[in-house]
Amino acid sequence: FYYHEIMGFDVIDSQHGNIGVIKGVNDSVSQALFEVEKDDKQLLIPVADNIIDKVDRESKTLYVTTPEGLVDLYLS
Questions:
Q1: Longest Cα pair distance anywhere in the chain, in angstroms?
Q2: Which listed residue, 6, 19, 47, 56, has the most CB atoms within 10 A of its CB?
Q3: What 3-state class would DSSP assign to 66?
Q4: What is the pLDDT of residue 47?
Q5: What pTM does this model have?
Q6: Confidence class of residue 76 from pLDDT cuts 50, 70 and 90?
Q7: Which contacts of 12-16 are long-range, i.e. CB under 8 A and separated by 24 or more positions?
Q8: Which of these, 68, 73, 64, 75, lies nearest to 22 by C-alpha position?
Q9: Which of the four pLDDT bands, split at 50, 70 and 90, describes residue 55?
């Protein structure tokens, strides 16, 4: 996928469920990051094959399995 294609996609984590909506992709650093927003908080999720489980273009949903503790850093 191209980054512009996934703007506005919901992000569903295998452990935490819906963790927000993709608002951007930061590719100015060595590891590209999805910029995800939920409840006025921003989560940074690495763009990596071992994290992305599925991209569903029809439902505009990105399915991920984030590393343990990553989501908790932002949402707790």
A1: 31
A2: 19
A3: coil
A4: 95
A5: 0.92
A6: confident
A7: 12/61, 12/62, 12/63, 12/64, 13/64, 13/65, 13/66, 13/71, 14/53, 14/63, 14/64, 14/65, 15/65, 15/66, 15/71, 16/66, 16/71, 16/75
A8: 64
A9: very high
Q: Which amino acid is at 36?
A: V
Q: How far apart (Å, rounded) are the C-alpha atoms in residues 57 and 67?
A: 24
* Calpha distance 61→6 (Å, rounded): 8
What SS3 state is found at 21? strand
The answer to whether the CB of 61 falls within 8 A of the CB of 52 is no
- Average pLDDT, integer, range 22-29: 94
CATH class of 3-75: mainly beta
